[in-house]
Structure formats: C-alpha cells, structure tokens
Write a structure and sequence with these properties.
By secondary structure, this protein is α/β, with parallel strands linked by helices. It has one domain: 3-Layer(aba) Sandwich (Rossmann fold). It is built from 6 helices and 8 strands. An 8-stranded mixed beta sheet has the order 1-2-4-3-5-6-7-8, sandwiched between helices. Helix 3 packs across helix 4. The chain is globular, with a radius of gyration of 16 Å. Pfam families: DLH. One of its GO terms (molecular function) is hydrolase activity. This is Carboxymethylenebutenolidase.
C-alpha cells in the first residue's frame, strides 16, 4: 500500500522511510517509530493501517536499512544501544514530522518499545508536533523530563513488562502529574510488545485492538 521515500532532515542530510498516504488529500499526519528490531514489515503495516484510518503515515528508518530478525535480541540490543537517540529524534524524526506538516497538516508521533521512548523525547524536542501516543517505552529522565513535555500524550503499557516495568511507568505518570502535563495512561494485562501481531508469543489481540481504537480516537481529537 505504501512506498519507500527519502526526505530531508533539518541538517540537510537525507533520511529514508516508509510512507502510506490516506485517500483524502488534506489528511493529518502520524510519524510511526519502530521497535528495536528496525523498520520491520509490521511497522510498515501500522503505517498502512493509519492510512486506512485517514492519516498520512511515515515511518522513518532509524537503523538506515538494518532490520533485525525477531529472535535475535542480542543484535536488536546492539543496534538500539548504538543508536544516537538525540540525533535520531531531533533530526530524522523531526524531518519526518516536517515532511508530513509541509502542507499545513497537524502531525502526531507514535512509537513502540524503542519508538515509545523516542516519542517521549520528541514530545520535548520537536516543536512541530501536536500530539503523541506512546507504546511501552520510556526514556531515561536525563533524555526527556516530564516537565519538558510540550504536547498532549496518550500512553499504553503492559503490566507484564521487564523492560518498561510498572515501577518505571508509575514514576513517569507521577512526574507528568506533578508537572501538570496532559496524559491519558492505560495499562493492559499483557506482555511487552503486545501490539505486534507478528510475534505470536507476546501478541494480545484484544489489548492491541483496544489500544488501537484509543490511539486513533486521540489522534483524531488532536490532529483533526
């Protein structure tokens, strides 16, 4: 449904990504950020799904062509740990946001796992954003403080998650509340990465569909 494109980062360098356009011409935009596996077909499928829901959706390729097989957590960890999160967010992701907003459209940001953390960093660093939806990812506080979040956020977390643990989620929620920030937070009796239908060991269809409905409703409210 979508297509591979290149777009410009604010620093003028080229970045690549996968773009799926809505059928209407003046659609709002959603930038979709990958898990630690890279720009997997499942993330491209999320873009297609957003396009069917009425959004232009662009997933920037933060790993520059590297896609890690789902079973290889060591390789995924290596890729994630070698990623410059600040450069990825303030240049590649911001470039994707600017690409979708070029006709005056409002743009939201969403991401999963690694992409959830990038979404929160983006909420503090990317001025063109109108809203964000986080899926089971939170960056360290030195990367993005709740007090610095500039847009309404919705967030989805799993109660059985040994990376983005309930304790980490509680701390983030409390920090957002203390800073008086707009946050809708949902918890699911599911495992980390429960939205990823390509990973049957963790996918929870009921939780995934509930989260999808909430996310698209939130974006319609804030993006039009």
């Amino acid at each position: 449904m979508g297509t591979s494109i290149t777009f410009k980062r604010p620093d003028g360098k080229d970045a690549a990504g996968y773009l799926a356009n809505a059928s209407r011409g003046n659609a709002p935009g959603v930038v979709v950020i990958q898990e630690w596996w890279g720009l997997q077909d499942q993330i491209k499928g999320m873009c297609d799904r957003f396009a069917l829901a009425g959004f232009d959706a662009l997933a920037p390729d933060l790993y520059k062509g590297t896609v890690v097989p789902y079973h290889d957590t060591d390789a995924a960890g290596k890729e994630m740990n070698s990623l410059d999160f600040m450069d990825a967010t303030t240049q590649t992701v911001r470039g994707a946001v600017q690409y979708l907003s070029r006709n005056g459209a409002k743009v939201g940001l969403t991401g999963f796992c690694l992409g959830g953390a990038v979404t929160i960093i983006g909420a503090t660093k990317i001025p063109e954003l109108a809203a964000g939806v986080v899926f089971y990812g939170i960056p360290p506080e030195q990367a993005a403080k709740p007090a610095d979040v500039k847009i309404p956020l919705q967030a989805h977390f799993a109660n059985t998650d040994d990376w983005c643990t309930p304790q980490v989620v509680d701390a983030f929620e409390n920090g957002m509340k203390a800073a008086g920030k707009s946050l809708e937070l949902f918890r699911y009796d599911a495992e980390h990465a429960f939205v990823n239908e390509q990973r049957q060991s963790v996918h929870d269809r009921q939780a995934a569909e509930l989260a999808w409905g909430r996310a698209t409703e939130f974006f319609r409210k804030h993006l039009g």
